[in-house]
Give the backbone structure.
Amino acid sequence: MQFVIIGGGPAGVQAATHGARLGADITLIERDILGGAANLWDCVPSKAMIATGAVIKKLERADRIGLPVHKLAPNLDELRSRVSSITEKLAKSYDQLLESQGVRVLKGTGKMISAHEVLATFADGREEVIGADAILVATGSRPRIPEWASVDGINILTTRHAYPPKEIPEHLVVIGSGVTGVEFVHMFRSFGSKVSLVVSRQQVLPAKDPEVAAALEADFLESGVLLYKGARAVGIERTKSGVRVLCDDQRSIEGSHALLAIGSIPNSENLGLENAGVFVDRSGYVPIDHHCVSNVPHIYAAGDLSGKLQLASVASMQGKKVAEHVMGLDGRQHRHLDYEKAASAIFTEPEIAEVGLAEAEAFAQGRKIRVTKVPFASNPRALIDGDARGFVKILSDPATGVVLGGSIVGAHAAELISVIAVAVTARLRVTDIVESVLVHPALAEALAEAAD
Ligand SMILES: Cc1cc2nc3c(=O)[nH]c(=O)nc-3n(C[C@H](O)[C@H](O)[C@H](O)COP(=O)(O)OP(=O)(O)OC[C@H]3O[C@@H](n4cnc5c(N)ncnc54)[C@H](O)[C@@H]3O)c2cc1C
């Protein structure tokens, strides 16, 4: 099986490693670095910066546990080299992994020239045509830049200019209050910037559980973030001292820098999709079925390009499923990816994580559910650590006790949600969590309490 993959992000790398294990003959074409945008621009650098900010915030709170600490500021040069060294280490480890599995990695740009041929073009102008029985396009996405914004990478930024920017903004205006926007608000707030957030609706994180969003809003307000609710940005002007963000309700916000976090657009241009007869929708995504197959039976799309949940974790699971389908695994060895059961997290303070059914969704469906909620305020570990913000919420079926979903707001929420994620995927009951003897003192004890 000649399997050609275009794009070496989480989707492409996972499809390659899993496919190689299953016996496919694989060529992966990547024009930049292995690990993709997730490694170079998105998950890894943003979380590395947030990790530095978290230490600053933790130390600033240390007086609560008897260690008063003075104000701290990050060293930008050190931060920059730390971010790039993590990225390089990860890219190198993917390189070694793929090499050890016999995957042929081509450092070049891939384009389909027919439904069974991919052209790789290298930096020195050389070209190679590779024949393929199956093709995966996993070329990801990039930040959306509206026509009213002239991004200069100095004062008007996308997330790709922020690792870190040349200087810590004195006053950053973040446009967009989805997951990416709030993470950057948190990141720069922890570095000491004044931050204003343009929130187009009446709630930050408009797609999330209102209780979860309210917990984050409370923290933002407490830490001095200015929220401009119900305002849509429609322009950014350069001023002597920085920028002025213009909103559709006539308000304007003066700041030193503006950062756009208003979503992404898929990298579907110049891929030769038309040469292979692959359908692309009006937004540039490649629609797929539950096996990640496009309208052409042997051509697959995965990751951000497929327009499903835009998460690195989902992209790599899609990659794995593609490899299984390409290699013809049957129903006993190959399960469909259930997007509804994907866990997700927002790396703010408090951290936020969710999985499965949400309360508002259950309500909208008129579905009977049992909701139990326990605050961390009574959790011994949270009190010992001096950070008892947030709560655990578990949703279950009142008739069977099967865990349907949950949300966690608080320290280490992104780690703790894994317990509920496994319960949702394995259809465990609340009693399975309650009867597990957990570590004491541990934040996870709040999960057992919430399940009870
Ligand atoms: C700021 C930010 C933070 C994020 N944080 C998280 C997080 O914490 N957790 C999480 O799960 N998700 C996070 N995401 C989402 C996550 O980054 C994406 O969902 C994920 O990167 C998608 O993976 P992918 O494999 O589709 O593509 P990508 O990671 O975008 O990789 C695609 C690769 O294809 C290559 N490519 C493109 N065109 C070609 C071509 N013609 N030829 C050869 N190569 C090509 C690119 O160079 C790139 O390396 C974040 C996103 C953003 C914007």
